[in-house]
Write a structure and sequence with these properties.
34% of the residues lie in helices and 31% in strands. The protein is built from 7 helices and 10 strands. Strand 1 and strand 2 form a beta hairpin. The N and C termini lie far apart (79 Å). The mean pLDDT is 91.
């Protein structure tokens, strides 16, 4: 007799690309191992009349692992009265699950003195005990020269195949050679470049006009 699954979901309408069928779902070691056919489970859920859908992906979230706000304030990145993001990876995961999202992509900012790779390692360690969904990280590039000179390739080799650049920072927005070098390095590494496309000079000027 086949080994029973850890969990069997019975009778759901299983929706997959281009297809919908009534079928049982067998789960083993946290992964779907079989759809349809005979199966037994150590635990079973009756899902008659319900849909079983693939989990969604939210590729742009801002979460802080527990304790990061304190680390940022200690590093002078946040003032004592300045609010941080409310959600950590645990509460953010719960909100994601509530909306059918099972994978999230978090923006990862280096702290002073950190490389993008350092920041990813720190945030991977911080998120691991909290996240209740799958996650990946978008490392934010704050040093374009260093990123283009090997960091982007190293991140991609580690499996982090996207980078984020904020053009709201004047020193980054004005560094056209650095931007082109970083984008070229990302392309060569097979990584996706995400640009946050504000115009730093325009924002600075209009902000001063509004204040005046």
């Amino acid at each position: 007799m086949p080994e029973p699954f850890d969990l069997v979901i019975r009778g759901a309408a299983v929706v997959s690309p281009g297809r919908q069928e009534a079928a049982d779902i067998g789960v083993r070691d946290g992964r779907i191992a079989q759809v349809g056919g005979g199966m037994a489970g150590r635990e079973e859920i009756a899902a008659d009349g319900l849909l079983a859908l693939p989990g969604g992906v939210d590729a742009h979230v801002h979460l802080m692992y527990h304790g990061l706000l304190g680390e940022l304030r200690e590093a002078g990145e946040f003032g004592e009265d300045e609010p941080g993001w409310v959600d950590d990876f645990w509460t953010g995961s719960l909100a994601a699950i509530g909306g059918g999202i099972t994978t999230i992509g978090n923006m990862t900012f280096p702290m002073p003195g950190e490389t993008a790779r350092d920041a990813v390692a720190r945030e991977m360690a911080g998120a691991a005990p909290e996240a209740a969904v799958d996650w990946f990280l978008h490392p934010v590039l704050t040093d374009l020269a260093a990123a283009a000179d090997g960091q982007i390739a190293a991140l991609a080799a580690d499996g982090h195949t996207s980078v984020k650049i904020f053009l709201v920072e004047p020193e980054i927005a004005d560094d056209q050679p650095g931007l082109l070098a970083a984008a070229a390095a990302a392309r060569q590494a097979g990584a996706l470049t995400l640009l946050h496309c504000e115009d730093a000079g325009l924002l600075q000027r209009t902000g001063q006009e509004l204040i005046a």
